[in-house]
Design a protein that fits this description.
Blueprint lengths: L6 E11 L2 E12 L9 E7 L3 E3 L3 E10 L5 E8 L5 E3 L3 H7 L8 E3 L6 E8 L4 E10 L3 E11 L2 E2 L6 E9 L6 E7 L3 E3 L3 E10 L5 E7 L6 E8 L4 E2 L4 E7 L4 E10 L3 E11 L2 E13 L8 E7 L3 E3 L3 E10 L5 E8 L5 E9 L13 H7 L8 E3 L5 E8 L4 E10 L3 E11 L2 E2 L6 E9 L5 E7 L3 E3 L3 E10 L5 E7 L6 E8 L16 E7 L4 E10 L3 E11 L2 E13 L8 E7 L12 E7 L9
Parallel strand pairs: 4-13, 15-23, 25-34, 36-43
Antiparallel strand pairs: 1-2, 3-5, 5-10, 6-9, 6-11, 7-10, 8-9, 11-12, 11-13, 14-16, 16-21, 17-20, 17-22, 18-21, 19-20, 22-23, 24-26, 26-31, 27-30, 27-32, 28-31, 29-30, 32-33, 32-34, 35-37, 37-41, 38-40, 38-42, 39-41, 42-43, 44-45
């Protein structure tokens, strides 16, 4: 073999018999640099034009090649732009108009203006090229040097640097220039303004194949344009000027409407024969228009104003843009007051009327309450609920539903406050309050769940007892209860107390539903569920009580499940080998088997 690069080279030999690996042997070789085969990396730097004017763009090309016979690793180039040159950062424009540049590898640092290009590794005969676009900002002779680095250190090889020189004057050689102005640099949202772009030929020859690019910002709306030469295309931003005589000026006027507040910068780039010659830009400050003020309204309602402790209530918050301008970064603060506990929330847009409540028992609420789409409402640890509405165009609106459980009695006021850019607004309609009046339980319907043993062992049986009571003043019907068993318990049996009449259905362990057709005043019905505990841990089980499909009450119990000494963990492990008599260099196959010989589930082995 012939070694191509320095370092430690490890090479392996694997021996097989009848396709079975019998032996293996490897060797290491230390490869040093060969004085007779020295590293030979060369660097050249050129520039597309040596005679330029202030304001011109110049294209520097740096080529790095490996002219030696060995691989060279970790090559980089330092190219510090000198005074009189400014790096051009508008890669998109230059990609489109000048060509394909590989500028992403070039790091123009902010601290010391050291530009480092990470070339990487080069095999013998390979080379890589980088183009750097810079704007000429100073006059006179400007020398730009690229220096070669190996392993991040400057080399002492020959050809370890290359310099490209330009001579810059204050006048444009072609005499071609562009000036862009605006008739009003301080406007309001919705105002019109007129950009004027003048292309001048102040040179000594007539010119042709002139073009200009002026791509409008997304924050402005194109209205119209006029020119004395060629036609402006607002979709592409291109304006072609077929020719321009000495001393002649071509003018383009673009009328725009400003859609949102802020500072809008607009650029005009001038090209001759597809080479960028000049650039001009203007800034416009766009303020909120007093004649077109932000008009965001917020409205909060609740599905029921008279409720009982334990009820679920559904608050609906609607935010709409009733103005004529885009409003960005809208949010709503809705802090749930004392007497309310968050159950779930759902953001609903015009075409999304259903979704999933995010509550403490997803399986239950998925099946009972419906499909809601949530996750837009952030109930923070400090009980500040923030809903990030986002941006609203004129006429748009968004809606949020918040599901809460009533935990306190009396008048409960829940207020939603409007924020713009995370600051409370002083607009009219900047908040909305929904009020409920809560009593301890209008229906008098309640559920209490208990367990006969809250500290058991794996494999033990326990009995959940669920009592549904009508302590109200009227007989009730269409009562149902959901008690979905945890996956860590196994259903054994259940019995229901029929009370004075056959008004109690049969508990369905697969769905968790228990229907109670009617319940008289003062009557109590009881459900007993016998279960077997399958694994250790804390098992929480909930019973949800419904009247006419509305959640009225909830009760839950915790059971601590321990490892059962009478049913100890019985996990065995065996290890075998395919051959007990072997030779040095042989391969052997060990087999490890793990099995559960006990009567209980064993986790996390």
């Amino acid at each position: 073999v012939k070694f191509k690069s320095e370092g430690t080279i490890t090479n392996h030999a694997y021996l097989f018999l009848n396709d079975s690996l019998i032996d293996e042997s490897s060797v290491d070789v230390t490869v040093n640099p060969n004085a007779s085969q020295p590293v030979n990396v060369n660097i050249t730097k050129t520039v597309n034009s040596s005679n330029v004017s202030v304001g011109d763009l110049v294209n520097y090309t740096i080529s790095v090649g490996n002219n030696g016979s060995v691989l060279v690793e970790n090559i980089s180039v330092n190219d510090t732009l000198p005074d009189g040159l400014v790096l051009v950062h508008d890669n998109n424009l230059l990609n489109h108009f000048i060509g394909f540049f590989k500028s992403l590898f070039y790091d123009q640092k902010d601290d010391d203006d050291d530009g480092v290009w990470n070339v990487g590794d080069l095999n013998p005969g390979d080379n890589k090229t980088l183009n750097i676009i810079a704007r000429v900002a100073g006059a006179g002779e400007i020398n730009n040097t690229a220096k070669l680095l190996l392993d991040n250190a400057y080399t002492n090889m020959e050809n370890n640097n290359s310099t490209a020189t330009i001579n810059s004057s204050n006048n444009n050689i072609t005499g071609l220039s562009v000036v862009k102005t605006v008739n009003n640099s301080n406007v309001s949202v919705g105002d019109l303004a007129n950009y004027t772009i003048n292309v001048n030929n102040n040179g000594s020859t007539d010119l042709s194949q002139i073009s200009l690019n002026d791509t409008l910002s997304n924050s402005v709306e194109y209205v119209s344009s006029t020119s004395n030469a060629g036609v402006y295309d607002p979709s592409s931003g291109l304006w072609n000027i077929s020719s321009l005589s000495m001393g002649e000026t071509a003018t383009l006027n673009i009328s725009v409407k400003f859609k949102s507040e802020g500072t809008i910068t607009n650029h005009a780039y001038l090209f001759l024969n597809d080479s960028l010659i000049d650039e001009s830009s203007v800034d416009v400050t766009v303020n909120q228009n007093a004649s077109q003020p932000v008009n965001i309204n917020i409205n909060k309602t609740v599905n029921s104003s008279n409720v009982s402790v334990g009820d679920l209530v559904n608050y609906t918050i609607s935010v709409g843009n009733n103005g004529s301008v885009l409003v960005e970064n809208i949010s709503v603060n809705d802090t749930l007051p004392d007497g309310l506990v968050l159950v779930g929330n759902v953001s609903v847009n015009d075409n999304l009327q259903n979704g999933l409540v995010i509550a403490h028992d997803d399986n239950l609420l998925n099946g009972i309450i419906g499909f809601f789409k949530s996750l837009f409402y952030d109930q923070k640890d400090d009980d500040d609920g923030i809903w990030n509405v986002g941006d609203l165009n004129p006429g748009d609106n968004k809606t949020l539903n918040i599901i809460a459980k009533v935990t306190g009695a009396g008048e409960i006021n829940n207020t939603a406050k409007l924020l713009l850019n995370n600051v409370y607004t002083n607009m009219e309609n900047n908040n909305s309050t929904a009020t409920i009046n809560s009593s301890n339980n209008i229906t008098g319907l309640s559920v209490v769940k208990t367990v006969n043993n809250s500290n058991v062992s794996v494999g033990d049986l326990a009995n959940y007892t669920i009592n549904v009571n009508n302590n109200g003043s009227t007989n009730l019907s269409q009562i149902s209860l959901n008690d979905t068993l945890n996956n860590s318990v196994e259903y054994v049996s259940s019995t229901g107390n029929v009370g004075s009449t056959s008004n109690v259905g049969v508990y369905d362990p697969s769905s968790g539903l228990w229907n109670i057709s009617s319940l008289s005043v003062g009557e109590t019905v009881t459900l007993n569920i016998s279960v077997k505990f399958k694994s250790e841990g804390t098992i929480t089980n909930h019973a949800y009580l419904f009247l006419n499909d509305s959640l009225i009450d909830e009760s839950s119990v915790d059971v601590t499940v321990n490892q059962n000494a009478s049913q100890p963990v019985n996990v065995n492990i065996t290890k075998t080998v395919n051959s007990s008599n072997v030779s040095v260099g042989d391969l052997v196959n060990y087999t490890i088997n793990v099995g559960n010989n006990g009567s209980i589930l064993v986790e996390n082995i």
